[in-house]
Amino acid sequence: MSNGQAQQIRWHHQNQPQQPEPQQLLQRPVQSPERRRSVTRKRNLECARDLECDRCARMFPTKRFIAQHLAPDKRKCQMCCKRFRHVSNLVNHVRVHTGEKPYTCAVCRKSFAQVGNLRTHVRGVHSGHTPFECDVCGRQFTQMGNLATHKRVHDADKPYACNECRLSYCQQYQLVRHQKKHRESVSRGPLPPETAFPLSQRQ
Fold it and tell me: What are phi and psi of 120, to 5 degrees?
């Protein structure tokens, strides 16, 4: 073999595309042309969402997709298309639409949509049981959420600020009550002197 032929063979081997290693071949799944066309068509349909569901306002590319979306499903709400993992959760959710409140308090006759809300009501209003106590002032509460809201009174953080003056409050209802006085003062004159102090300075 001449030098020229040897150079041609070396050049040919150097310019050949590199073959992937056997491990790389295993990592890359081979797709058939039909599969590739199917994936491309699906992506195109997902991009072109022109049709809107009358119940939940979600957009879909074709009528067939809407039909699948609206197909009967025992775990999906027929009014808003929200889907639930458990049928019992769907039953509770449907009461939001119907307004049904089947659970009634035996003491005050107040009705609730969920049995958990009834239990919370009975424990908080009628039982007198207050297991959650503030570690600062000793005030007791029936629910952990109420205790957490109360603890803001002791914190320096007051996130609810009035946009008309510099006063800020630790609870939203206090800000709403304060802003109501601003609205009333338009017809009556300036605010009374006692409202000019922050809540923390009031006795």
Answer: -60, -40
For 33-82, the pLDDT digits (tens) are: 677 667 666 665 555 567 788 777 778 777 777 777 777 777 888 888 88
Give the 3-state secondary structure of the chain. Answer: CCHHHHHHHHHHHHCCCCCCCHHHHHHCCCCCHHHHHHHHHHHHHHHCCCEECCCCCCEECCHHHHHHHHCCCCCECCCCCCECCCHHHHHHHHHHHHCCCCEECCCCCCEECCHHHHHHHHHHHHCCCCCEECCCCCCEECCHHHHHHHHCCCCCCCCEECCCCCCEECCHHHHHHHHHHHHHHHHHCCCCHHHHCCHHHCC
Ranges of residues in the chain with a pLDDT under 70 are 1-31, 33, 36-37, 39-49, 186-203
